[in-house]
Design a protein that fits this description.
This protein has 240 residues and is of the alpha/beta class. It has eight helices and seven strands. This is MET27 protein.
Length: 240
């Protein structure tokens, strides 16, 4: 039988993941991501991180037209994991934004993006006009201590009416408070008529857990969720 230790990713990988999820403030978080950039893809492979695959597959399935024609913005693009999965499903080159300069440098090297810009979502607006994109993805960026849930309105702003917004978050214990806040925000926007829910897909094996406390029922994995919303064609009336 597999030893308990064999259930977890290597210790140094666990430390880097824990550091990012436990960052105290934004400059510290960006510094950690900058330092992690060169090893990031290696580490997420060790984590069996499936969010990019799941999100790209869900988006391809929900998209009404041919993926090659869709203008896509990948928010929190990191080193380019989502762009790679989108390309596999017939999408053209997306635009990407990320808060970490070192992550953007790695993404540039993969050659899968049309345009890459630095932007710290949550503290500044996205560098795009309203209604610019057919689909906007935020995969892995929405979580405790990372992008605040209120920033989803900014994702919605740059999506064209009828376009899709694809979000992911984790369902592990330390992210549950954030997930509840995020879902309250998503539901409020739906009640206001800003968008409509297309898909909510819970996934048991999102990525390998980095501790016993975070693991789902002793599986050694944490769960996560993909959300897809369609921006409503008519802009909603502001609440009086």
């Amino acid at each position: 039988p597999m030893s308990r230790a064999g259930m977890w990713p290597p210790a140094d990988v666990r430390e880097r993941v824990a550091a990012v999820h436990g960052a105290a403030a934004l400059p510290e978080l960006l510094g950690l991501y900058d330092a992690w950039a060169a090893r990031y893809e290696e580490d997420v492979a060790a984590l069996e991180y499936r969010a990019p695959v799941l999100a790209a597959a869900a988006l391809a399935a929900a998209l009404p037209g041919p993926p090659a024609a869709a203008a896509v913005l990948d928010v929190g693009c990191g080193t380019g994991l989502v762009a790679r999965e989108l390309q596999r499903r017939g999408f053209g080159r997306p635009d990407g934004v990320d808060g970490s300069a070192a992550m953007l440098a790695q993404a540039r090297g993969c050659g899968l993006y049309r345009e890459l810009r630095r932007c710290v979502l949550g503290s500044e607006p996205l560098p795009a006009p309203a209604g610019r994109y057919d689909a906007v993805t935020a995969v892995g960026a929405l979580g405790e201590g990372q992008v605040p849930s209120a920033a989803v309105t900014e994702l919605l702003r740059v999506t064209r009416p009828g376009g899709l917004v694809c979000l992911t978050t984790r369902s592990n214990p330390s992210n549950l408070r954030y997930k509840a806040e995020l879902e309250a925000t998503l539901e409020r926007l739906e009640r206001q008529g800003a968008w409509e829910k297309v898909l909510v897909q819970e996934e048991e094996r999102w990525e390998r857990a980095t501790s016993e406390e975070e693991s789902t029922q002793g599986t050694g994995y944490i769960s996560g969720v993909v959300y897809i919303y369609r921006k409503c064609p008519v802009s909603p009336q502001p609440e009086s």
